[in-house]
Amino acid sequence: MRYLCGTILLGLGLISTPFAQAAELQTVSAKRVVMPLEYRVDGVVEARRKATISAEVAGKIEAVYFDVDDTVKQGEIVLRIRDLEYRASLEQARAALAGANANLQEMQLEYDRNADLRHQKLISQAVFDKTNAGLKAAQARMTSAQAELAQAEEQLAHTVVRAPYGGVVVERHVEPGEYTRPGEPFMTGYAPDQLRVNVNVSQSVIASLRIGRRARVVLLDNGNSVDVERITIHPFADSKSHSFPVRLDLAPATDRLFPGMLVKVVVDIGDTTRLLVPSRAMVSRSEINAVYTADKEGRLALRQVRPGSRFGDQIEILAGLDDGESIALDPVRAGIELKRQQEADR
Fold first, then answer.
1. In this structure, how many other beta carbons lie within 10 angstroms of the beta carbon of residue 217?
2. Rg value, the chain, Cα
3. Domain residue spans of the chain
4. Quick one: CATH architecture of 55-81+159-190?
């Protein structure tokens, strides 16, 4: 387990300390600052919205309009299937519907005539019942013809495949000229503005995450942070690692992230104090790290320190420096001034 402190912008005031030389040497006071205590763990980016478009009708593929890494807008045509057979079926369905409609109208007229005759008792009940049955059969044929027309229209529509949402193509499964069958995959894509990070958080930290619900995702290449919109914690721990699976939904427009990338997840678990100084004030020689300190009289000294983690343009000092001590911001000029002071003391 590794506990680190997150980056924070510090308003460290600069102090101009006069020296004997003409130019002034700027110094800054080392200060202890309250900062969030953080737990860092590796996470993997994945797509929250990923889909594979599949065939819903059989036929020969006429055209495929997109390939891997292409950006597709919602509703754009990604593929066409030969539709001559389905257009013919649609025309047949329309003709069948017209025939069923004509038959229904004829049977309705006959029913109306026989109903009037039956009311006058000019025809038997058996004849009227036969007419009534014929009308119901005509109505059933009409309903069936309407359903067949709707099915033919839907099958024809399925020969033109459109993107269900905007995204990026990650895999293309077919080529023009191939014969496809229902259920066969065409193309796989994901929405780049809907990503999340999967991570396993230690059981010693999960309680703080459940309470605070504060975490951020840090990119490995440049150290920039990505906002987290929602945190989902699984209600159980892995029996082998004793860690809890956690999903972090990322804010939209994270075009720097792609599924499969490794990132750092930083979980806020409390507060701590750090003694920070500007990193440019640090002097590193071989394995020795030091800063130039200045007392109230402006006397300089090279002080060895033990640095810790970096937080932006600040660096933590673990040992060798006390809170409130003044250090020189420009170690080169400070070294020249220290040499001048030492020569003047001889």
1. 24
2. 39
3. 3-47+194-344, 55-81+159-190, 83-157
4. Beta Barrel (2.40)
From first to last of its 346 residues, the chain has per-residue pLDDT tens of 333 333 333 333 333 344 444 357 888 888 888 887 888 899 999 999 999 999 999 999 999 999 999 999 999 999 999 999 999 999 999 999 999 999 999 999 999 999 999 888 888 999 999 999 999 999 999 999 999 999 999 999 999 999 999 999 999 999 999 999 999 999 999 999 899 999 999 998 898 888 888 888 988 887 788 889 999 999 999 888 889 999 999 988 666 788 999 999 998 887 888 899 888 888 888 788 998 888 888 888 888 999 988 887 888 999 989 888 888 888 888 888 888 888 887 7
Helix (H, G, I), strand (E, B) or coil at 88: helix
CA distance 267 to 4: 10
* Torsion from C-alpha of 202, 205, 208, 213, nearest 10 degrees: -40
CATH number of 83-157: 1.10.287
pTM here is: 0.62
Please give the Cα distance from 61 to 180 (Å, whole number).
Answer: 7
Only one residue has tokens 């001048």, namely 340
Q: Check: CATH 2.40.37.10 for 3-47+194-344?
A: no
